[in-house]
Amino acid sequence: MVMPFTPPALVSPLSNTFWNKPDDFDVWRLPDDDSVQKVTVQKDTMVPNAVTLVIEREDHTVGNLLRMELLEDKEVLFSGYRVPHPLEPAIQLKVQTKSEDPGPVKAVDTAIERSVATLDKIGEAFAKAKARH
Amino acid sequence: MAYWALEALDGSKTALSSLDRVEGTDPPAYKLGCVRGTTTPLLQMTDKIEIEVKELTEDSITFVLSGCDTSTANALRRVMIAEVPTMAIDKVEVLANSTVLHDDFISHRLGLVPLFSLLARWGDKELVPYRHGDAATYGTDSETGLPLDQTFRFNRDCDCMTTCPKCTADFTLEVACNQDETLEVTTRELKPDQPLRCYAADGRRREDDGDFEPDASAGGEHILLVKMRKGQKLHIRASAQLGIGKEHAKWSPCCTAVFAVDPTVIFSEKVYATMRDFVDACPKKVARPHEPRDYLVADGANEESCVGERERHFRFTVESTGALKPEEIVERAVLKKKLRDVQANLIAVVDNEEAIGRG
Ligand SMILES: [Zn+2]
């Protein structure tokens, strides 16, 4: 016998209007209303060819991966990331390149491209290793 | 030994990036690290990526990943723990409870029960076939009429107002104790409304390839929820939804996901000459004589031996809670999707803001 299931009122989609606690899923997904941008780019005013990227809803996983990948690039002078506040699900990634072209944004773009290539290789290698086992 | 710690923290990067600065300098002036290897660009390094599965059981997998950077290995580990979606009970309605455990306690225990579902995965807002192929092969769920190979949606992405079978798997737990002995209520009593798409994990491995049918034969390992005595009653309706470990640990498919780095013991040539038998006696060959380019230049430059980490070589152990097969956890660690998401947004931002241009 299957009874119709009505959730209690407090867990309806409107539930977050009853308290000011952020929703649990706010740590990993952007709000549906587009009020938060995934990536914002801020040009450094003091240092040439440098930007600070704020990447929303990401943490050390992506931050450290991108930092290390950027450091592999000979055009990159500096790259570092930090989590400005442990309760805010965003990271800052600072990148400086030697020249304007490729600039820091381009450097991040290629770093992602290289990283994805590595991950593809890992995926393929795992499938092969599984089949071999 | 401080220079080893430095290198362990930063992987090979410290050594690589320092190499440029040191060119043309005599080794003793170089205090930062232990120069090893070459500055091979990563694109060439990817060719060397290798994986070897050492052990695969029904609840754990051990494999060696070699040829990638520590940051990649660590990112994989973190994604396996926190960002592989599974189903877990998220909303509980207690209709009757006269057991010794109060409602919240039982609800919390239910939330932590691992639910097996191959259909819990990242998807778009549409239902996505788990395996591409003939949907008719898998048939439809008799209760809901949903194709069996279609994944669950995130509740937030679903077009229903509250819950529906596309985003939610409901369970019923109805037990009354009429016996004199203590009755142990386990996850065996947790009856799924969609038994072919999602059910409480019972430690038994299922054959793959579209066989979503839970093994009807008796046995399996069921998790104790509460003990009851005569006259007590428990009636619960619970809904499981898709989620990830970052939101709550109950959605994490891993008991443990760790990687370890094998040691490397380096002997100077002098020591190696006298200890050759000792070195060769090691079946795992953790020791090796030092090569000319392995000069050690921290204090005590001519140390006779040192212990380091084998570079770009990671021994992973992933243990499943039962919510997914261990190899599925590794396969579903979709770091790529996250990176592509960042990349797409990065390009969008730059296109919007002319001022930034190439800078
Ligand atoms: Zn729904």
Automatic annotation (TrEMBL), chain A:
GO molecular function, one term: DNA-directed RNA polymerase activity
PROSITE patterns documented for this protein: RNA_POL_L_13KD
Any one GO biological process: transcription by RNA polymerase II
Record-linked InterPro entries: RBP11, RBP11-like, RBP11-like_dimer, RNA_pol_Rpb11_13-16kDa_CS, Rpo11-like
Record-annotated DNA-directed RNA polymerase RBP11-like dimerisation domain positions: 51-122
Coiled-coil region list: none
GO cellular component: RNA polymerase II, core complex
One family name in Pfam for this protein: RNA_pol_L_2
Keyword tags: DNA-directed RNA polymerase, Nucleus, Transcription
Keyword Transcription: yes
CDD domains, per the entry: RNAP_II_RPB11
Subcellular location: Nucleus
Similarity comment: family membership: Belongs to the archaeal Rpo11/eukaryotic RPB11/RPC19 RNA polymerase subunit family.
Protein name: DNA-directed RNA polymerase RBP11-like dimerisation domain-containing protein
Lineage: Eukaryota, Haptista, Haptophyta, Prymnesiophyceae, Isochrysidales
Automatic annotation (TrEMBL), chain B:
Molecular functions (GO terms): DNA-directed RNA polymerase activity; protein dimerization activity
Gene3D superfamilies: DNA-directed RNA polymerase, insert domain, RNA polymerase, RBP11-like subunit
Pfam families, A to Z: RNA_pol_A_bac, RNA_pol_L
Keywords recorded for this protein, A-Z: DNA-directed RNA polymerase, Transcription
One GO CC annotation: RNA polymerase II, core complex
GO biological process, one term: transcription by RNA polymerase II
UniProt keyword annotation of Membrane present: no
Superkingdom of this protein's organism: Eukaryota
Record-linked SMART domains: RPOLD
Entries under InterPro entries matching the protein: DNA-dir_RNA_pol_insert, DNA-dir_RNA_pol_RpoA/D/Rpb3, RBP11-like, RNAP_Rpo3/Rpb3/RPAC1, RNApol_insert_sf, Rpo3/RPB3_RNA_Pol_subunit
Domain DNA-directed RNA polymerase RpoA/D/Rpb3-type: 60-345
Signal peptide: none
Similarity comment: Belongs to the archaeal Rpo3/eukaryotic RPB3 RNA polymerase subunit family.
UniProt xrefs under HAMAP family: RNApol_arch_Rpo3 (MF_00320)
Protein name: DNA-directed RNA polymerase RpoA/D/Rpb3-type domain-containing protein
Species whose genome carries this gene: Emiliania huxleyi (strain CCMP1516)
